[in-house]
């Protein structure tokens, strides 16, 4: 059976489900390529969650405009040479079409270069923050920037995480590309698509089922189509009943029921299987329990005992991951469910549970943390300390200095080669009005500095003493 | 102000290093005879470990080639076994430049290397001994595995004496044309607790507000500029508002990027400044130590620290 996500992939832009505005921008950009010369923005970045139609619309666009597609995927060898060779070769050379005829790109035969999962090029940075090895993949980012600058052909970058693309050396991508954001597709539109598919496949179904599938997908069209297909295989008729057979129930309701069991009951035997019923790893479920623990156990002694149980459970998870021995998981599970359950000495009226605010905070602060860490790295290199120390013990004072003293800020902007985003971060909300002045003054001082150096080398006075040089370039310890 | 003072005033010569006289005397002898053992520099932050290494390198190799003959690695930035196998080996096996028998590899924060990495390091040290000297820095030498310790001379850097810090601070004050009042100087000593880096950092922040450094100015800089201070966190927990304390904790970990270990150590330090009975302080210290152990053993720092916050809340509720 053919994969429905491929079979029903839109053939033209007007078939793409949802994201009308993004599609409009994409079309407008493509039209700028119909002229003689390449437009100013030679590349666009399609950014959005999985299954929102980014790749589909890129492919559909190529069809609509009769462009040949050169697709590079993150799973291809990703290094400077590969990207440059494939992309620039495709971009600047005229090539032969599939029948061996010479194809002049100006005659309409443009080649669209699609760089899928472009944010994954740099995954190393994420893993080992601040380590020098993070530069090993930088070549990839540089190559993309160079490619975009010299290309004579349209380029589409596809990312889930726009920030992952532009941070750490990718900042100039902001200037040379246009970002088009894709949002989660709304449930109604997904239901319409699912209905159309069912009609084509001659499958009778009820609307309720399609609605549930669409809701569960949370705006991810691909996963909705996927789920539909997995339910329909070997069937001519599906209804809501088929869902249950697949253990396909409302994920959130299950979690909340499980939390209620932990917090409201005391029978640890009944709680044993609860970690299997929730559709997540036990260490993630632990975060849900921890989030709601202080919301439920309002009496301090219950809270203390409850926290002691989750703290011990967490130790077992630590042991599991350090030794890669999953035999310890059941102990962790029993402690975090049964241990928390027996910690209470009374019942509480609470009936509202929340998802982990820890994860939410992590997610929403991702861009800021990225900037903070890149500043900490630059500062750490300058003062020869690790990123960890620089972040914890030098950055706080550095931020005060930066905000208090505009000359200092300006000098540091140059010396540490801080980007505009990093400068803005250091200034914080309260001092952000100084941003423009600092950027301007950092440039000006640059020119002046050059003059002074020239004068010095001409006159060559004997300074005798080795003072701090005026050129402000205080070398970091090990410049290599 | 055009510089970061901790860099600007980092001593370039061994003679200028503040305090640590017996250690400096040894290092000078090594530089003069151009021979040195592998070494571990152990001691708290801001006591001159990195500075001594850099000054030693300068005197040993001379201005021309010291940078080429030294390699600095921050173990906490790249703590895996990978750096031992990759970077260190790559640097270790190339010949030194100029008139010297060996090169120096400086491994900062070596105590954050994993046991595996340390074991690999031990072999690397032996293998390249003919051409390389290793200097490891660590807060505690005991966190370095025995086999490495036994191959190194261990130098223990002590917290700097108040007088030494004062002398250096006065020197900076003169150069920067600052007026520092006696109570300002005392305050700086109190804040620094033997950590010269902290003293200089604090002085510079004070100087960015004006040329007169008083106790008041210094307290202002430490109080206003620090939403990241763990004292706020402790006070919120003691006051009984657990959810607010938890949010502050998340901010420290996420927004300010402090590690759980850093926070727990700062909490330990701050307990002494609390206005609660000493027996409660001792109780809290015991809980804090237990939590640091659990952080090392566990997987989610924030869960462990929340557990500790609950303990502060308990003590707070008993005192009310």
Structural features, described:
The complex is a heterodimer of chains A (480) and B (320). By secondary structure, chain A is α/β, with parallel strands linked by helices. Chain A folds into four domains: 4-181, Rossmann fold (3-Layer(aba) Sandwich); 187-245, Helicase, Ruva Protein, domain 3; 251-361; 366-458, no CATH class. Helix content of chain A is 57%, strand content 7%. Chain A contains 24 helices and nine strands. Chain A has helices at residues 4-7, 20-31, 54-64, 80-92, 123-127, 138-150, 162-166, 173-176, 187-200, 207-217, 221-232, 240-245, 251-264, 268-271, 274-277, 282-296, 300-323, 329-341, 357-364, 366-383, 387-404, 406-415, 420-431, 435-459; strands at residues 43-48, 68-72, 95-96, 102-103, 111-115, 155-159, 177-182, 204-205, 237-238. In chain A, the strands form three sheets. Chain A has a five-stranded parallel β-sheet, sandwiched between helices. In chain A, strands 3-4 form a two-stranded antiparallel sheet. In chain A, strands 8-9 form a two-stranded parallel sheet. In chain A, β3 (95-96) and β4 (102-103) form a beta hairpin. Residues 96-100, 122-137 and 450-480 of chain A have low confidence and may be disordered. Chain B is an alpha/beta fold and 320 residues long. Chain B has three domains: 5-156, 3-Layer(aba) Sandwich (Rossmann fold), CATH 3.40.50.300; 162-221, Helicase, Ruva Protein, domain 3 (Orthogonal Bundle), CATH 1.10.8.60; 227-317, Zinc Finger, Delta Prime, domain 3, CATH 1.20.272.10. Helices cover 59% and strands 9% of the residues of chain B. Chain B is built from 15 helices and seven strands. In chain B, the strands form two sheets. Chain B has a five-stranded parallel β-sheet with strand order 2-3-4-1-5. In chain B, strands 6-7 form a two-stranded parallel ribbon. In chain B, α4 (81-92) packs parallel to α5, α8 packs across α9 (196-207) and α14 (278-297) runs antiparallel to α15. The mean pLDDT of chain B is 88. At the A-B interface, α16, α17, α19, α20 and α21 of A face α1, α3, β2, α4 and α9 of B.
